[in-house]
């Protein structure tokens, strides 16, 4: 999933500071998850930035894409026997 734009993040912070509305109402107004509002405000307070965090990554693949192709071409289906 793509991160929310920096422009949207700025609008959320500006609205929160100017209107002093609840985080729940803010989430409804901008049609985002309440958890996103919590995290965005926390990040803004603690780090002073609105930039989306980088992707956390994940586990490394056990097989490279080339090896997957080689292994899958070696497999035969029961219909071919």
From TrEMBL:
Residues 72-81 have a biased composition (Basic residues). InterPro entries: Homeodomain-like_sf, WH-like_DNA-bd_sf. Transmembrane segments: none annotated. It holds the Pfam family HTH_23. It comes from the Bacteria. Residues 49-81 are annotated as: Disordered. This is Transcriptional regulator. It comes from Nostoc sphaeroides CCNUC1.
